[in-house]
Amino acid sequence: MEVKDRVPLGELKRREHCEKHADKARRLRVVILAAEGWTAPAGAMAVGLSRRVCHHTPIQ
Length: 60
Fold this sequence. Notes:
The chain has one domain (9-55). Helices cover 62% and strands 0% of the residues. The chain has 4 helices and no strands. It has helices at 9-18, 22-35, 40-47, 51-55. The model has no long low-confidence stretch (mean pLDDT 82).
């Protein structure tokens, strides 16, 4: 999975930790895993989402 480096990894992890909504925190986790080099299938399995969702996860 390709991730554009717009926000530093540490900031993404901080946002995930502070996020009150579980669905947003899960999507942040997907981006973090991708930034760490995980494949889409592995990241999807880790967070309980489909591979397709992991490929098209927008974070706002």
